[in-house]
Here is the input.
Amino acid sequence: MQEHAKSKNLIKGFSGDEWEIVIGMEVHAQVASNAKLFSGSSTAFGGEPNSHVSLVDAAMPGMLPVINAECVAQAIRSGLGLNAQINLRSVFDRKNYFYPDLPQGYQISQYKQPIVGEGVVEIDVDGEAIPVGIERLHLEQDAGKSIHDMHPDQTYVDLNRSGVALMEIVSKPDLRSARQAQAFISKLRSILRYLGTCDGDMEKGNLRADVNVSVRKPGAPFGTRCEIKNVNSIRFIGQAVEVEARRQIEIVENGGTIDQETRLFDAVKGETRSMRSKEEAHDYRYFPDPDLLPLEFTQDYVDKLQKSLPELPDAKRARFVGDYGLSAYDADVLTAERENAEFFEAVAKGRDGKTAANWVINDLFGRLNKEGKDVGHSPVSTEQLGAILDLIANGTISGKIAKDLFEIVWSEGGDPAEIVDKRGMKQVTDTGAIEKAVDDIIAANPKQVESAQANPKALGWFVGQVMKTTGGKASPGVVNDILKRKLGL
Ligand code: ADP
Ligand code: MG
Here is the structure.
């Protein structure tokens, strides 16, 4: 079973040999916090260049960093959400390198002793649950930004991001396909958003991934990896893995070897390009930052944070399957975003779960997607959608009329029951009216009567005709009963 599951992921090389892709990711997640990691300046997105810069962020001589306790709490929450070991003592190190947007000349990061150790995240691809190991999560500062396109021969530096807290989350090399890599980043994003520890907005760059890719023959030791830097969308992560794996397979099949290097993904050309040969840890001359004490907190503190965590996607998904009888797929769709799950639960409470799921996923999400809206801006509220479902359940309207009613509520608002009353949308259960319609249709269509009597499947045509003459308001159950009786079926 395990072997079969794995063999699905093999890809054919140019020579016809089969290859396995091995992927590990280093994800940079911006900590959701109003202030930076070691200063009080704002982390707000889109400010005037250099408007959110304190003396610490600008690395003025003699300025001392002061740890932001909220960022520490966020890292611990994230670690707990990744089922990971929380280290009660960790150490900040200086990672030394020169870059114009790094005025300190070093980044404060964590190296040998990170705040969070090993954990595990479960992903689901094609119904198969795959555990993905987490190596570590550590806290570090972001750098500033060099702006090259304002002036043809000058570069500007914007330090607004300088000192913003990042969590670097490193996975083990446990991923085996582009789709698994995509599922991993989606799951990670979902967990962090549930926790409220990272907004996960990849377009704004507050979640970005370095994707390490190597290839090997099945069962062989790991091959040499290349690291593709800063891939900033889920779609690009999939593409980058595929083109990089192809590139490596072609080299190895032609008798070459892979150089360990850092590469860039070019989405326009659909290729990866060499940026620089891989730097080693010793190149950075890591050493403990003498300006900062080791970071220490108690198990009590961790336990308190643990107790305050919300229900996370996996638990919610399992509960939706158990409590509402949903398929794993529907439960997955509904729990990917916390707001979506909460919307669904408000609608499903005290109602049929599967019907609620169908309406929320197909009608509501479908419509929201079309208009590029999220559930927080839905024109149809949980109360309104719930009221529509109640009108179907108690037989007031048919499922078909309910779609029209949904459209009206979507565009005009209002109380669904009142709309049904005012616009005469009630289902016709008055058998007299339906019988009259049936009699008329039978009288006018002797040929169809014959064929329905020969083949009861042709009954559908009659149902359609009755619906048409009653404006879709006849109760389908009543129509069926009357038709069968009158046609002698
Ligand atoms: P470094 O610190 O030098 O970047 P790490 O050991 O931290 O190296 O690994 C970085 C990332 O590379 C991790 O996500 C890990 O899973 C991944 N990785 C390690 N070896 C391989 C490999 N052979 N193929 C693909 N990914 C790998
Ligand atoms: Mg690394």
